[in-house]
Amino acid sequence: MSKQTPEMVKAMSQLTCSGEVFFTALLYTLKIEARDDLPGQGCGATDGVHLYYHPERFAKTLKESQRKWLIVHELLHVILFHNMRRGIRDAERWNVACDHVVNLLCTEYGFDVPKGRLCDPQYKGMTAEQVYDALPQDSGESDGDVMDYDPAQNDGVSKGDMEREIAISTEKAAQAAKAAGQDTASMKWIVGEAQVSREPWYQHLR
């Protein structure tokens, strides 16, 4: 892990001390990196391996309580394989759909989602694919923080192998959370949805 800004160090520490075992366990499986060249005007982004954040925007545009939200927001994109599942779908519309899904989950966990973020309750309990299909023509704008996974940028590790690594980390985090008495309905949905997304297409045909 590269050296982090004081604001990121504090946010990571606060998340760790919050008692959220599931997210804390997963946080340290990602490579966290400050970048000044993130897409759009967002404060963070992920490619499924890295958690990128814009140091100036992270420090100046988010309240202290919202910095934990950003970390969990990006973690949820990774856990739910949003970086792996876009296929031929429109990238901007896919980002919008994914943001609705993860922000609704963040509200369930009590994280401080900034006002105006994509978080429509009509999409509660829906997958990113379902939200994508249900979005109106004018679906709004995202921060473009869901970056497609690229094996070439990750030592040639295939998408399938990376999915397996994420799945193993997610299951270990879920087991740790259960041991701590945090076997919540939201966590079960997250883990279940992630596992369904990884099933081969022929399993669904059955």
Description:
With 206 residues, the chain is mainly alpha-helical. Helices cover 51% and strands 5% of the residues. It is built from 9 helices and 3 strands. β2 (44-46) and β3 (50-53) form a beta hairpin. α1 (6-17) packs across α4 (64-79), α4 (64-79) packs across α5 and α5 (91-108) crosses α6. The longest helix has 21 residues, at 159-179. It is globular. It starts with 5 loop residues before the first helix and ends with a helix.
Question: What are the main properties of this structure?
Answer:
206 residues, mainly alpha, 9 helices, 5% strand, disordered C terminus
Mind sketching the topology for me?
Elements: H1 6-17, H2 21-27, E1 31-34, E2 44-46, E3 50-53, H3 55-60, H4 64-79, H5 91-108, H6 128-134, H7 159-179, H8 185-197, H9 201-205
Parallel strand pairs: 1-3
Antiparallel strand pairs: 2-3
Helix pairs in contact: 1-4, 2-7, 4-5, 5-6, 7-8
